[in-house]
Every structure is written in structure tokens, then in C-alpha cells.
Amino acid sequence: MANSGGFGPEGSLGSLGSLGSLGSLGSLGSLGSLGSLGSLGSLGSLGSLGSASANPPLLVQALITNRDGIAGSFEPVAPGDVDAGSQESTAYLERLSAGVRSSIFALELGSRVGFKFDGGDANVYHLQTEYGTSETKYQLLMEMKRPTQEIFADQLTMIANYADLRADRAGEIISQLATPLEFLRSIAFVDPARTPFTVELLGMSLWLANYVEMRVKYALGCKRPVEWSPQIQPMIWTPTHGSLPSGHATEAFCMAQVLWRLLQDTGTEPYSGGLWGEMMMRQAARIAINRTVAGVHFPVDSAAGAVLGLNLGEYFVKRSMQIAPDKGWKFDGTLFKDASGSAEGLDFDWRQYYDFASTPPGLKAGVAWVTEAGFQNSAPDAPSLPLGWLWTKAKAEW
Predict the structure, then answer these.
(1) What are the pLDDT digits (tens) for 131-144?
(2) What is the pLDDT of residues 199-254, one digit of tens each?
(3) Is 24 in contact with 32 (CB distance < 8 Å)?
(4) What are the helix and strand counts (H, E) for the chain?
(5) Residue 126: beta bridge partners?
(6) Do residues 194 and 390 touch, judged by C-beta distance below 8 A?
């Protein structure tokens, strides 16, 4: 997700800065720190945790001398005097900082996702496993094939024409260099002080999207529009990583899907009504299309990103709701053409292939370049209790 120079959001997750002490995810390489969520503030009282100011030198010195003055002779403690507490208990999660929890959730997600590049396809897998047994199996979650050079070439004129919108959308485009949450929260009443667990849930869905998209981008190695024509002249810096799938599209649609499914699951009126899902999909699409306006993405990049984001969003929801994932999607970029066999006039439109209003939301049939495939010879699948805890806490906020 982050652009060059740490401007976010395609590559470093640094723009998630104010999720309090989620900075512990900084150890995950380029993911930076899950610390800010744009300008959302500091997750209430969590804002100061994990920062240098949490241990000011004067207070440290005072605590040293204070102990010397009041502790007295040390009195031994017997082992039976202290309750050992429960192991592997979700009841303990609420006592942890958001940053510590983020590391736990990241392992719950990342340890069950595999990747392989095979014969031109970038394949993302879900690892089915029943803990404590030898039954494991990688199931295809997402298969992505890059478009032909002819398809990319066909779409250059569309990108050049989109440049006419740059002056009108400059404010949006620059603001959307940060995470999608600032724009999603203008639709649903998400706020760190009001819905901290929802913010945390969305932060982890963003982490999953970035975790997968960057590996797929690297594998497919699609060139950016600026590498095709000197007349594109993007209005913002072009990120160094590959063009397809669009990271902004992946992340925006993943987060929109997770938030919409969360509101649906609450059954709370009016949040669970269809207009909320419609608006979230529109918002994700607007963010994706603005990247073409800016000159850094082809429409087909957004189509691929939306497919991947929706797929990962539903996967995240199932893992969180303790539902075993049972199907994957396939995106074949070589088939991204209209009836005439050209991609010149084929713009990105999520409605072509996705029905958010179905129960559950899913792919439409009859679209050549995106299809669904069920898992094969499924193995038992252990649920994620920590993710289930987070989902339940977020759901209760609505």
C-alpha cells in the first residue's frame, strides 16, 4: 500500500499510524507501524501507550527513589499465593494493548495463507488444518493471471482521457494516499473513541490485504502506465511496486467488504440496510478509479484489485465468524476484453461481476475473467478464536 517516501498507503501501512500501540507490527518488514489510521487520533487513551513519552526520565528517576523509600525488606512469595491464570484464553485479549493483539491476529491470519507462482499464475492459498492432527491441505483461495500486453496497450488512451478529471479530484487523490478508512467512516459512524474494536478489526483487514497484494504484485510484475508512455505524466509519484493488482482497490474493497458484513451481522437498523453496502462499494470504487485519474493505474488493475479485495474481505469475515472458508476465486486478466475482443473501452466496474446484495454477497455468473471454484477434498478446518473475539467485540459496538 504505500507510495514512495512513505506517503502511504500502498506498501508500508505506516499510514495506519494512530491505532495506538499497533506499532509492534513494525517488525513485519515494510509494513511500518500500524500506528495511525490517518488523522483518526489515538484510539482514545491508547494514544500515549508505546511511545517514548510513556516513560519520561524524570518519572523513572522518581520511581527509583520512591521504591527505595517505601519498599522495605523483601518478603518472599509462595507459589500457591498467586493464581497462575488460564492459558490460551480469549478472556485475556482485552487486557492486552492493541499493539500486542495486532501481532496475535497477524499470526492467526498470516500463518494460514500460502503463496505459489505457477505457470504464469499467482496463486494464494488457505491452509486448512485441524490443530493436533496431521490433516492439512492448501486450498486455492485466489488465482490471478496478468493481462496481455495488448490489453494494457488498449487501455492507455482511457488513462490519458481520465487526466481531464485531475484538477477536480486532486483533493480526493491526495487524501486517499492514506488509508481508505477516512472515507469509509464518512458513510458508517466509525470513530476510535466510539468504535475502537471496529477500527482494530478494519486495521487487521487492511494488514491482510497488504500482506497478500504485495506478493501478488511482485509475482506478476506488471509495469505502470508511466513506463508505457511519456505522455501519461502522473500527477503523483508512481510507486515502485507493480501495477496489478491495484493496492488501493484491494485494500478499499477488502475494508468495505469487512465493514459491510460486520454491519449486516449486527442486524441493527439502519446500519444493516442495503444502502450502506451500496455506498461502501461505491466509495471503494471511487478510490480505485481515482488512481487511474492520477495516472498510476490501468482500469484492469482496479478490476483485479477489487476482485482480490472482495475475496480477501470475505475470507477475513469467515475466519472471524468461525466459518470455514470453502471457495476461491480466479481472475484471468487475459480475458479482460469486451465483446469486440478489445479492452480499449472496457473500464473498471465492480457491478459487472459482484452482487453485494446477495446473501452472502458473491460473484455473478457469466463473467469470463472472474470465476469461482470450490475447495477440493476439504480437510477439517480449525477456527480462529482470537479473530472471533475481535469480531464479537466489534459487532457489539453497533
Answers:
(1) 777 788 999 999 99
(2) 999 999 999 999 999 999 999 999 999 999 999 999 999 999 999 999 999 999 99
(3) no
(4) 10, 9
(5) 113, 139
(6) no
Count Cβ atoms within 10 A of the Cβ of residue 41 and give its class: 0-12 exposed, 13-18 middle, 19 or more buried: middle
d(CA 314, CA 328): 10
- Quick one: which of 39, 175, 164, 43 has its CA closest to 99? 43
DSSP string of 143-197, one letter each residue:
EEEPPPHHHHHHHHHHHHHHGGGHHHHHHHHHHTTS-THHHHTTTS---TTT-HH
- For residue 372, give the C-alpha cell: 469461482
Pairing of strands 16-17, 36-37: antiparallel
CA distance 25 to 207: 9
Q: Which residues are 327's β-sheet partners?
A: 374
Place of cell 478490476: 303
pTM: 0.86
Residues 19 and 200: beta-carbon distance below 8 Å? yes
Question: Residues near 224 by Cβ (< 8 Å), separated by ≥ 6?
Answer: 238, 239, 242, 243, 296, 297
